[in-house]
Amino acid sequence: MNRLTNQLLTMDLQLFDFIYTKKRSAFLNYLMSWITHLGGAVFTVVLPCLFVILANSESDKVGYEALLVLLSSHLLVHIIKRITNRSRPYKLLEDIEVLEIPFEEYSFPSGHTTASFSLAITFSFYFPLFSVLFLSLALLVGISRIYLGVHYPSDVIVGIIISVLFSSIIHLLLTL
């Protein structure tokens, strides 16, 4: 098991290094700093609230479902963060320059990725024609978290897994 763990950690660091160092530019720094906010609390909470407040009964159903997925998935994210206490890459690795210091101290799993995928998947259930757009934006949020030096790839992958599970289960339970 220890060998497998070491291999996974090595792959995690190699992928982090590739995303963080290979394609850096002023334009990507700006773009990724902007994209990452699509997974932040302000955007991910306000958007479903707008569905609830401004929409008809079908659209407010989408908003309530998205809020339920966000609430439940983030409860698990914060429990896991407290159990694992994994430090962020910029705190452990050399030559990592962060553009914005995150609010949360711990890295694993990525809350921004979980939030953006939770919304993307929930909205995809209701608006399937836009699912590629939703999921692409969510993936960019996850990549931005690595690019900005605040998450490892495994943090992002686990955030995606959590959001897929919570979005799917809650949608299934609410549509029965």
Task: Give an overview of the whole structure.
With 176 residues, the chain is mostly helical. The chain has one domain. It has helices at 2-21, 26-35, 41-54, 57-84, 89-92, 111-126, 131-147, 153-174. Helix 4 packs antiparallel against helix 6 (111-126). It is globular. The termini are far apart. The mean pLDDT is 90.
Backbone structural class: mainly alpha
Characterize the biggest β-sheet: none
**Count of separate DSSP helical elements:** 8
Q: What would you report as the Rg, rounded to the nearest angstrom?
A: 17 Å
| Unreliable parts | none
Mean pLDDT comes to 90
Mass-distribution shape: globular
Helix content: over 70%
- What is the terminal-to-terminal distance? 41 Å
Order of helices and strands: HHHHHHHH
Oligomeric state of shown chains? single chain
Fraction in beta strands: under 5%
Instruction: Give the count of structural domains.
Output: 1
Strands, total number = 0
Subcellular location: Cell membrane
Membrane topology: Multi-pass membrane protein
Protein name: PA-phosphatase
Domain Phosphatidic acid phosphatase type 2/haloperoxidase: 62-171
Quick synopsis:
The protein is 74% helix and 0% strand. The chain has helices at residues 2-21, 26-35, 41-54, 57-84, 89-92, 111-126, 131-147, 153-174.
Notable characteristics:
176 residues; mainly alpha; 74% helix; transmembrane helix
Task: Present the secondary structure layout.
Blueprint: H1 2-21, H2 26-35, H3 41-54, H4 57-84, H5 89-92, H6 111-126, H7 131-147, H8 153-174
Helix pairs in contact: 2-7, 3-4, 4-6, 4-8, 6-7, 6-8, 7-8
